[in-house]
Design brief:
Order of helices and strands of chain A: HHEHHEHEHEEHEHEEEHHHEEHEEEH
CATH topology of the largest domain in chain A: Aspartate Aminotransferase, domain 2
Helix content of chain A: 40-55%
Number of strands of chain A: 14
Structural class of chain A: alpha/beta
Number of domains of chain A: 2
Shape of chain A: globular
Number of helices of chain A: 13
Radius of gyration of chain A: 21 Å
CATH superfamily of the largest domain in chain A: Type I PLP-dependent aspartate aminotransferase-like (Major domain)
Oligomer: homodimer
Largest sheet of chain A: 8 strands, mixed
CATH class of the largest domain in chain A: Alpha Beta
Distance between the termini of chain A: 49 Å
Strand order of the largest sheet of chain A: 2-9-8-7-6-3-4-5
């Protein structure tokens, strides 16, 4: 059967996280590996009300086939919310509903990538995006992500040296995996670099609403670049289980192509879920709801940072996110977070090693830690276990360097 | 921007049906074009009960991220139902939930097709499948579909002459677009032909439960062929709006690859919808529900056939389906159903012309007619309009042949 399979699927890496999640079912294990939003973000009671209201109000429309781009009313709501938040001039025609943002990544790969076309990613980048794009056999270029955003010199160089680049994929707010955000200046600089180029810019922004420190910044490309695409989702603010995301672009020709690809991929996203989310958003105070999530995540992030200050050896550095769900720890050179993983599992604490966030990197000295799905005491205990492990690893690493 | 797009998306045809549906919004138009199930098939009251029950019972699990293959309980239900109906020995591990059957088609394209790999389709075949597979640039071979099923001689010849065939895509029950079904003998013959071959067989069966005449027949490949895949869905029996379909295969290695492709495509299907459908199916008498749909469709099919006998010129032949949602009319040679379409639109009756169901065929003398979404009086009136149009076209065609 092997020879029946496409080269494409042989090249598509299964997700490391999802494999971890399968093995880490022991309830004694403290998991910082997943990317699960805290269940506090699911407004169950209000959604239940909306379920009854939409069936009563829209009846069979909630259950019938529907149009590919998605429910116009919901798309208009999204357009208006982004207009208000970012001073844009979108209408429902600039919004297309996807089956979660993961589908948006797949559709973007579909409509842009021929074999060996270039795709620029942050270094490190979101592994789900690497997985989605990999299906279409691009050539990946990773540009260093710094405390301020993309390394613009490296970006310019990469663009200069390669004429095959189709798009740049960036997560400007509380990036997955690092938790880093692009500064206002960096956003401007990146925009200036791209202005004269025939290249699309994908800004994936699942966490943008979850800023618990500092001020909201404008997108790099939205409202400014011709081939700008912004990805959004309700997964982190309402529910991920409903698989409801959206693509926003002022470029209707791009959206038309994404729509053809979507039609071929799943016809349309669950229309009941679209009515439901739209009804929920228009009948409730979403800002108050989001502020609850942010308050919790802020507390959890602080708990993790405080525990790291207490328990982590000083040779380990880590990011201090202003929002989102993750932070990123960098170990001394020579220590592989991947090799450390089985030991961590023994101590019943898990994280995601850096490797899957890079292209062709093995034994990276970095790890992603999620803080949104454990209470503060559990976070303290988990970081303590991890800290002890790291101390041992550093001693071992030093002695191996000497010997 | 054009040069930013992939060859793939340039080669993917937008759906003719979906374009029609957009133009045919005039409520005066009688549409036999769509493939919409009758809203009678949506058990709204019962689904509303299930919505309340699952939120109460499973809480945040209905709203959180979930596993790629789908809710094990729902998959086990599907396995047991197919075991009972077809004497198979499936477990939940043989079932993977998809975002509607359209996604299954996309995933199958993804895991099998390299550029120029061969795909065998029925002639004519389902346009949504042609669209999904086209994204992966296969070479299509169409094997004639007869009153009894596939033309086995042609099938053997196609297999003999081409060593690049990856899979055969077939709709053995009440085929879309023709309404034809494979006979018991034809199923056996096709199975025998494929037994020694390293080729996958995809049996797409969205309408199998909607048999209103004759006896249920076994699948061609399920339980018999190593690389057999059966596609199913609740779209025609419960709701299409929830985008819930499934892939069934005894070949777990095939399912594992489909699962990796699905993970990269949308992580997992709406988990709330899976709880909902599963709860509905296990708390209600689904057989009684389906029997109501069948009774209605039988009446509607009869109404259409009777109207055709009354109004269609005798030169036009048509299929007599034993179930499903469509029938297929064949016009005298030389009459293009596509060219006739604007005239039909003027008379306010629409259908799908044959062309999009074929590979590289223009001006086919055939059309697909759907009977499930109009009442019997409307069907009579629509077929009358169409009959008059066909009579005129035949007269015109004859005079053009003479002149």
């Amino acid at each position: 059967m092997e020879n029946l399979l496409s080269d494409r699927i042989k090249k598509t890496p299964p997700s490391f996280i999802r494999s971890i999640l399968k093995t880490a079912v022991d309830p004694q294990i403290i998991s910082f590996a997943g990317g699960l939003p805290n269940p506090i973000s699911f407004p169950q009671e209000e959604l239940l009300e909306s379920m009854q209201r939409i069936v009563k109000t829209y009846g069979s429309k909630c259950f019938q086939y529907s149009i590919t781009a998605g429910l116009p009313e919901f798309r208009q709501y999204v357009a208006e919310r982004y207009n208000k938040r970012f001073n844009l001039s979108l209408t429902y025609e600039n919004v297309l509903i996807t089956t979660g943002s993961q589908q948006a990544l797949d559709l973007i790969g579909k409509i842009f990538i021929n074999e060996n076309d270039g795709v620029i990613l942050e270094k490190p980048s979101y592994l789900g995006a690497i997985q989605a794009f990999s299906q279409y056999s691009p050539k990946f270029y990773q540009v260093e992500l710094t405390e301020n955003g993309l390394n613009t010199q490296q970006l310019e160089q990469t663009l200069e040296n390669n004429d095959n680049i189709k798009f740049i994929y960036a997560i400007p707010n509380f990036q997955n995996p690092t938790g880093l955000s692009y500064s206002a200046q960096n956003r401007k600089d990146v925009c200036d670099i791209l202005k004269s180029k025939n290249i699309a810019l994908i800004e994936d922004d699942p966490y943008g609403e979850l800023r618990f420190e500092g001020e909201q910044l404008p997108y790099i490309g939205a409202g400014k670049l011709e081939n700008s695409i912004v990805l959004g989702t309700v997964s982190k603010t309402v529910t991920p289980g409903m698989r409801t995301g959206f693509v926003i672009s002022e470029n209707k020709e791009l959206l038309r192509n994404i729509s053809v690809a979507k039609e071929a991929s799943d016809l349309h996203s669950n229309i009941y879920a679209q009515y439901l989310i739209w009804d929920y958003l228009t009948h409730n105070d979403i800002e108050t709801h989001i502020s609850k999530i942010k308050a919790l995540y802020k507390k959890q992030a602080q708990a993790m940072l405080e525990a790291m200050a207490k328990y982590f050896p000083e040779e380990v550095t880590y990011t201090k996110p202003q929002g989102g769900m993750f932070l990123w720890a960098t170990l001394p050179e020579g220590i592989s977070a991947m090799k450390l993983f089985p030991k961590a599992l023994e101590k019943r604490v898990v994280y995601v090693p850096g490797d899957p966030f890079y292209i062709n990197v093995k034994d990276a000295n970095s790890m992603r830690l999620n803080y949104t799905n454990a209470d503060c005491e559990t976070i303290d205990e988990g970081i303590k276990r991890l800290g002890n492990l790291l101390k041992d690893a550093i001693v071992e690493n030093k002695s191996s360097l000497i010997s």
